[in-house]
Amino acid sequence: MALPKLKSDVTEARLAGLTLPAGADWATEARQAALGRVASMGLPTRRDEYWRYTDPAALTAPEAPAAAVLATDETPIFGAVDRIRIVFVDGVFDPAASDDLSETGLEVEFLSSAMSKDIHWAKDLYGVLEARGQKPVDRSLAALNTAFATQGVVIRATAKVARPVNLIYLHQSETSDAMLHNLVRVEAGAEVTLLENGPAAARFSKVLEVDIADRGAFHHVRAQGRDHQRRAVTHCFARLGTESTFKSFTLTVNGRLTRNECVIELTGDDSVAHVAGACVGDGDDFLHDDTVFITHDAVGCESRQVFKKVLRNGATGVFQGKILVKPGAQKTDGYQISQSLLLDDDSQFLAKPELEIYADDVACSHGSTSGAIDETALFYLQSRGIPRKAATDLLTLAFLAEALDEIEDPALAEDLRDRLEGWLGRRR
Amino acid sequence: MLEIKGLRVKLEAEDKQILKGVDLSIGAGQVHAIMGPNGSGKSTLSYVLSGKDGYEVTGGTATLDGVDLLAMEPEERAAAGLFLAFQYPVEIPGVGNMTFLRTAVNAQRKSRGQEEMSAAEFLKEVRAKAKTLKIDADMLKRPVNVGFSGGEKKRNEILQMAMLEPKMCILDETDSGLDVDAMKLVAEGVNALRSEGRSFLVITHYQRLLDHIAPDVVHIMANGQIIKTGGPELALEVENNGYADILAETA
Q1: With an 8 Å Cβ cutoff, are B86 and A380 in contact?
Q2: Which end of chain A is more exposed for a tag (fewer CB within 10 A), N or C?
C-alpha cells in the first residue's frame, strides 16, 4: 500500500541524506531489514494518531535544528557514585575520556568497533526487539536508528556487576545530529545497572534494546540533558524472561522536545517491569512526551508506570501509556499513573491512558490527574514563614517525590533529588 | 502587642460581611480567650490576621507591636512573630516533617537577618522539644501531618510553635477533636511557652481548655463582633448557662 503523500515526502527527504554503513558486518542484514521497515511504514507525521500530541517534524527533518550548548559549572550527575564511565561527545565514543572497562561479569563492546567482529549474541539482538516492537504501532524512527546508527555500546552481563555502567552524553556542537544504538544482554541470574546522562547532541536519536534472561535484573536511571533547545527521540525496547526484573527511571528537566518511548514485553512468568519518570518543563517551546507500551504475555507478571510532570509558562506534557494483557496472561498485576502539576493556566497536559485486556484473572488500574498547586498547603507553609516561592518549590518537589521514590538505589535517588531542588530554586 | 481596631472583613467570593468591627487589645505576656457560638467569626479573625486568601478587609486595622499586619504576606507576618495553630492542620504528602520545620525555622531567621541554624543544632533542639510533647522520632520523619491522629496533629502544631518561638500565638480551636489526655499534653506545651514577652489568643468553643490554659481576659464573640469582655469567670458563665443569656442581654 502506498504511503500518504506527506509521509512519503518526509521519508524520502530524510533517507536522501543517509547511506547504510558499508562493510560485511554482522549487523548488515539487520540494517537492511530495518531500512525496509522504514520504507514500508514511513516516518511519522503529525497526522499519525500516535503523534497526535507531539509534532515529529523536527525529528524527521533532514537537517538537525541547532541547539545552544548549556554552560554549567555543576558537578557531574552521578559523580558521587563509583561507576564505569563511557563518554560520547556529540554521539561519538571518546575512549580517552572513558574509564577502563574491565569489570567482573561485564563485557563491553562498541558498535563502532564491533562491526568487524562476530558477536553472535549481539547479532541475535540488534534490531530484533525493535522489530518486535513495531506491532501494533509503527515506531519508524527506531527502525531508522537501527538502519543508520554506527555508535553505541554493546553490553553483556554474565554475573552481578558490582559497579554501574554510566553512559555520559556530552553535547559540544550546536549542530550535532547523533544516533546511538545500545544493546544490553543480561544473562540468566545476572544483574547490571545502567546510568545515562547528558544532552548528547542538538538532535539525539537513541535506541536501547535490553534482553533479560531468566532471573536477570536490569536497573536503569537516566537524567536527560538540560540544554534548552536540544531535541531527542529515545526508544527503549525490553524483553523479560522468567522471574526477571526491569526498572527504569528518567528525569527530564528542560530540553525543547523529548519523546521517550518505552516498549516492554513480559514474556517470562513472574517477571517485573517498572517504568517511571519525573519531568520539569518551563516555557511554551517545551514539549515532553512519554509513550509507554507494556505487553503482558506470561503468567503472574507485574508492571508499574509512574509518571509525574511539572509544567509552567506554557509548557506541554504528553503521556500515552498502554497496558496490553494477552490471552493467558493470568494473574497480571498492572498499574499506571500519570499526573501533572500545572503551575499556571497556560501550560497543558495531554494524557491517553489505555488498557487492553484479554485475560480474565487480572488486576489492572490506571489513573491520570492534572492539577494546580494546593493553595491550602501553600498557605500552611507560608504561615510558618516559608516564602511563597520556596513553598511552591517544596510542594513541587513533593509532587515529584513519588516518581523519584521509584529509584531503588537511595544514593542515586538522593543525587537527583538534590539537583532538582537546586534547579527549581534557580529557575530558568 | 496585638492591637485590632474596628476590623471589618467580608468574604471575597460572596458579598458577605463576617467581621463587623472587632476591637481587641492584647498586652505583652497576656493570654486572651475568645469564645462564641458557631459562625460568630472567630476562625475568620484568625485567618485574616495570618493572611489567608479569600478575605477582604473593608475597614479597621490590625498591628503587631505597631507594625501593620494586614499589609504583609503570610510569611512576613510569621517572621514578624505571628503564629497560628490551625484548627485543621494541613497534610502535606512528600514533605518530611523535619525538612518542613527546618525550612521554616531557617526562613524566619534569614528574613530577620539571623544566621541559619546548623543541622546538628537544629536536630538537638527539635529532639528535646519533641520529647516534652511526646512526639517520637517516627512522627518527625513522616510527611507533615500525613497519617497523624487528631492529637498528633495538634501536638505537631505546638512543636512548630515551640521551634519558631513567635511572640503572638493564635490557637484556633486547638481543643477540637482532642481527648482529655491529649488536651492536657497540648495545654502543658502551651503553658511551657508562656512568658513575659509572648502573648496568646485562644479561640475555643468550650471552657474546658481554659481549665488548663488559664486566660487573663475572656471575650465573647457573636455575629462578627466582640459583645462582652470579662475575666476568667466569664468562661464559667458560658459553661454553665450557654451563650443564650449573654446574647439576650446584649441584644
Answers
A1: yes
A2: N
Q: How many CB pairs under 8 A join A and B?
A: 78
Phi, psi of B173 (to 5 degrees): 45, 50
List, in order of start, the domains of chain B with CATH numbers. Answer: 2-90+166-250 (3.40.50.300)
How open is the CA angle A264-A153-A229, to the nearest 5 degrees? 80
Cα A275–A319–A281 angle (5° rounding)? 95
Could you tell me which of A140, A174, A159, A287 has the C-alpha nearest to residue A213?
Answer: A159
Amino acid at A157: A
- Residue A116's alpha-carbon distances to A109, A119, A208, in angstroms, are 11, 9, 21
| Phi, psi of B38, rounded to the nearest 5 degrees | -55, 140
Q: Which residue has the cell 494483557?
A: A325
Q: Which of A209, A114, A226, A220 is nearest to A170 (CA)?
A: A226
B181 contact A CB<8A: no
Torsion angle in degrees (nearest 10) through CA of A118, A124, A130, A131:
110
Rounded (5°) CA angle A71-A76-A78: 150
Determine, for residues A384 and B79 on separate chains, whether the beta-carbon distance falls below 8 Å.
Answer: no
Beta-strand runs (E) in A83-148: 84-89, 92-93, 106-110
Tell me how close the Cα of A398 comes to any Cα of chain B, in angstroms. Answer: 4
Cα separation, A221 vs A47, whole angstroms: 33
pLDDT number for residue B237:
87
- Specify which residues A261 forms β-bridges with: A235, A291
Apex CA B91: angle with CA B89 and CA B94, to 5°?
145
Q: Distance (Å, rounded) from C-alpha A244 to C-alpha A266?
A: 9
Compute chain B's Rg from CA coordinates: 18
Distance from CA of B76 to the nearest CA of A (A): 7
Helix (H, G, I), strand (E, B) or coil at B210: helix
* CA–CA distance, B176 with A40 (Å, rounded to integer): 70
| Contact indicator for A70, A207 with CB cutoff of 8 Å | no
Which residues on B lie below 8 Å from A387 (Cβ)? 73, 75, 107, 111
Establish whether this prediction's ipTM goes over 0.90.
yes
- Taking the C-alpha atoms of residue B216 and residue B45, their distance in angstroms, rounded to an integer, is 20
CB–CB contact B78 A395 (8 Å) = no
Q: Among A382, A384, A394, whose Cβ lies nearest the Cβ of B164? A: A384
**For A88-139, what is each residue's pLDDT tens digit?**
999 999 999 999 999 999 999 998 886 667 777 888 899 999 999 998 999 9
For A389, name the nearest residue in chain B, comparing CA atoms only: B75
**Cell 536527560 sits on residue:** A224
Strand partners, A356: A324
Residue whose C-alpha is closest to residue B101's, from A393, A394, A38: A394
How far does B79 lie from chain A, in Å, by closest CA?
A: 6
**CB proximity A378 to B under 8 Å:** no
pLDDT in tens, B157-191: 999 999 999 999 999 998 888 888 888 888 998 99
Sign of CA dihedral B185, B189, B191, B192: positive
